[in-house]
Design goal:
Blueprint: H1 3-16, H2 24-72, H3 76-91, E1 97-101, E2 108-112, H4 113-118, E3 120-122, E4 129-131, H5 135-139
Antiparallel strand pairs: 1-2, 3-4
Helix pairs in contact: 1-2
């Protein structure tokens, strides 16, 4: 049962009880029911407008998808595959990847040697600037395994 139907039911109950609108209680109940009826009608109008906007948004989304297909000439799945290939080609197999955790937002940040050489990285999530001191790492040389 919709809210407008519930208000109509209350209005019918009040009329069936033959409330005396000349008395204070009858006036109060009648006024409350009238306000509820106004609210229910406004709410119904808002719901109708929302449904209309949702339909319009769906139509715009469909049109935009057609435009994207026409402009780019490819599907989304193809784009994902191309992005994966780009990153694989860009990083190469011999390049190291490093990770750290942002102390502010606790998000994991991945970066390569070029960022490590710069000595700082900006967290893409919160914008925190993280600085690295790589001088101690360069001085230490890996020890040869003992035989």
């Amino acid at each position: 049962m919709e809210i407008t139907e519930k208000v109509a039911y209350l209005k019918g109950l009040a009329e069936g009880m033959e409330l005396d609108t000349g008395k204070k209680e009858g006036k109060l109940l009648s006024a409350i029911i009238d306000v509820l009826e106004d609210i229910a009608l406004e709410l119904q109008d808002i719901q109708d407008e929302q449904a209309e906007l949702a339909e319009g948004l769906d139509a715009v989304s469909d049109d935009l998808e057609d435009v994207e297909d026409a402009v780019f000439g490819e599907d989304e799945d193809d784009e994902d595959d191309e992005e994966d290939e780009y990153y694989e080609d860009d990083l190469g197999e011999d390049e190291d990847c490093y990770a750290t955790t942002c102390p502010t937002c606790e998000e994991t940040i991945y970066f390569d040697e070029s960022v490590l050489e710069d000595g700082e990285v900006i967290c893409p999530n919160c914008g925190e600037k993280l600085e690295f001191d790589t001088s101690s790492l360069e001085e230490e040389e890996p020890e040869a395994p003992q035989e």
